[in-house]
Write a structure and sequence with these properties.
By secondary structure, the chain is α+β, with helices and mostly antiparallel strands. The chain folds into two domains: 4-120 and 271-280, Diaminopimelate Epimerase, Chain A, domain 1, CATH 3.10.310.10; 128-264, Diaminopimelate Epimerase, Chain A, domain 1 (Roll), CATH 3.10.310. Helices cover 15% and strands 39% of the residues. It has four helices and 18 strands. It has an 18-stranded mixed beta sheet that branches. A hairpin with a 4-residue loop joins β6 (97-101) and β7. The longest helix has 14 residues, at 77-90. It starts with a strand and ends with a strand.
Length: 284
Amino acid sequence: MRPLRFTKMQGIGNDFMIVDGLTQDVSMSPSQISQLASRTTGVGFDQLLIVEAPTHPSADFFYRIYNADGTAAGQCGNGARCFAKYVYDKRLNPKRSLTLQTETSRLTTKRLSANEFKVSFAAPQFDPEMVPFKPTGQSHPEVSKWSFEAPGQPAVKFGVCNVGNPHAILQLSSAAPSDLSEWATALTTAHSFPHGVNVGFMEVMNEHEVRLRVFERGAGETLGCGSGACAAVAVGRQWQILAPSVKVHMPGGTLSIAWQGGKNKIEMTGPAIRVFEGSAHLSP
């Protein structure tokens, strides 16, 4: 088998292996993807992005997203910026603005500089059926707040939304380093989320700034999550505690998120960095 050519990229520490599926065969099993994702014996990444031809005439590219465990994902905000950077670096399309398709959504990217990109997503969806979310706990009078109680833990309030993939956002007094994995695991595996969920822990510093940690389904805690940043701001706006423009600080860096509410698109601006080029051989 020929070596698989790839580019390693990262956006605020959220890292990706990007493969051109237009010029090479990239058929891979979930086990092969997880082998490549290994940080000790493989390339190492949070998600794999595969470039494909668009399926709609208005789109420039289609791309598939796979988590480190080999499962498919519908959306990835940091990945969208890195994908646009890849297209720019590889000269696959000369346009400054691109329309991209994923399995679950359509989005636009705009190159602001060689390493900075803006992504515009469809308006967040809060309807539990669209997340999807099947609430079993008691709802609260506050807008879009739900209650969840893990075994042996006190109940917490959280919000849900879909920004191309499902997110649950919990507000904490501090998102400083601590073991939040039990909460994340409990929510990710809860029957209320039939397709699993990405879990974000948000600390509101003021109406224009938050700190955020995100545990992504299929990848665990990552240094940054673009869709998670969008979801946190969207939920915060629904709760009327955040302004239309917010800086979201994550362990790997900061993203700028803007959302005017309602049916308006939500916008994310941040860096995209090429790390290295390489090739890999797939194990059977």
